[in-house]
Specification:
This protein has 200 residues and is an alpha/beta fold. It has helices spanning 16-24, 39-53, 57-64, 73-83, 94-103, 132-142, 157-162, 173-178, 188-199; strands spanning 2-6, 85-93, 108-116, 122-126, 146-151, 165-169, 184-185. It has one domain (2-15, 67-199): HAD superfamily/HAD-like (Rossmann fold), CATH 3.40.50. 44% of the residues lie in helices and 20% in strands. It has a 7-stranded mixed β-sheet, sandwiched between helices. The longest helix has 15 residues, at 39-53.
């Protein structure tokens, strides 16, 4: 029994924080898990910038409403779900994910949650579990699944390496160079073929 675990941002949809940085003209918010391996440090940095600029959840959600999945993502996901179970494991937040899940046909997503004040200020974040991607993959394996995983960032490497098969997708040159043993793909067709091949 196989279950495919996919990252969300950079794999199926554009990076939310980059879109928000461009919409607000705040370049510091362009930093993502491709640049900063320490997610805790990255989120604290983001929350401080939001506070400095007086921006809250609503402003981020307004930008998310304008984001569409990457070209071909919905078709790729539909085809993948036709041959096996798929879970999106993301370090994004429930407050961000819903509009994107709707556009992707409501796939299953495991993610985290933001702590938001009554005034709409993002004050903190709550991780579902520590090392959520790796922990989830290991939990799935403990109930009898072989996992196949794909992602683009530093925080995807542990789940990719812990899985029976793992692939980088649209990753950075540095991550690809540092992990030459992990097959890397730039197209959904290539990734789909590789995932199906791993199931044989």
């Amino acid at each position: 029994m196989y279950i495919t675990c996919l990252d969300l941002e950079g794999v199926l949809v554009p990076e939310i924080w980059i879109a928000f940085a461009e919409a607000t003209g705040i370049p510091e918010l362009k930093k993502t898990t491709r640049d900063e391996p320490d997610y805790d440090k990255l989120m604290k940095y983001r929350i401080n910038i939001l506070k400095e600029h007086g921006l809250g959840l609503k402003e981020i959600q307004d930008v998310i409403e304008t984001i569409d999945p990457m070209p071909g993502a919905r078709e790729f996901l539909d085809e993948l779900r036709a041959v096996g179970q798929v879970i999106i494991i993301s370090d994004t937040f429930t407050q961000f994910a819903a509009p994107l899940m709707k556009k992707l046909g409501w796939p299953t997503i495991f993610c985290n949650s933001l702590v938001v004040s009554e005034s709409g200020e993002v004050v903190d974040f709550k991780m579902r579990v520590e090392n959520s991607k790796l922990t989830t993959v290991k939990a799935l394996q403990s109930i009898g699944y072989d996992t196949i995983a794909s992602g683009d960032s530093y925080n995807d490497l542990a789940m990719i390496r812990a899985s029976k098969a793992g692939f980088l997708f649209k990753s950075t040159d540095k991550i690809k160079a540092d992990n030459p043993d992990i097959p890397a793909f730039e197209s959904y067709d290539g990734l789909l073929k590789a995932i199906k091949g791993a199931m044989d």
